[in-house]
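Agenda item 2: adenosine monophosphate complex prediction
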Amino acid sequence: MKLIFLGPPGAGKGTLAAVVSEVYKIPHISTGEIFRAAIREKTPLGLKVQSIIDSGQLVSDETTIELVRERLEKDDAKNGFILDGFPRTIAQAEALAKIIGIDCAVNFDISDEEVVSRLSGRRVCKACGKNYHTDYMKPTKEGVCDKCGGELFTREDDKIESISKRLDVYRAQTAPLIAYYRERNLLKDIDARPASEVILENFKAVFPPEN
Ligand code: AMP
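Presented output:
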């Protein structure tokens, strides 16, 4: 299954993608997470994109497309994948179509108010990248990752000024992809408001797992 998860930041794409990746045994490819890992490791890519990401802007199409092209060439992506956060512009969608055809773009439907509440409460593990929330998904011990014991922090781009910038960028550059995929009969809407377990059940009803 070759899927795109489309929707504003904070819609729960990454959370659902992590579970779907396990259930359907296809890799979860998050361009945001690839960039954040590069920033953590201080690679040349990380140094190049850090200030862009912190300010809530998009990394250039050229850099992002090349990154995804290389990632999709790896063996584990041959039987399918979930692209989370890519494409984010029409140019990226057109480039992807030349690399590989997809089965479906899943559009996560959610209001701006809900996005702001989710992102401003999000906390992320510095060491392993696992996400938490101050209200909905608390760690057992405040400020500490349940999975690896790493320190939890607020992403620079989850601070309020960056959230509104990211929503503006989403509306201007990414939301047009909804019509793009709808016109190609590749779009499925999913209600992103319920708890993640409910969204997973709804997802399975639309895309039944093979076993
Ligand atoms: P995310 O974790 O998907 O919210 O991505 C975090 C940040 O990484 C975004 O705000 C962008 O700065 C950058 N980014 C992730 N994916 C893309 C993409 N497809 N195109 C351009 N920039 C991206």
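Discussion summary: The two ends are 14 Å apart (CA to CA).
Owner for follow-up: CH.
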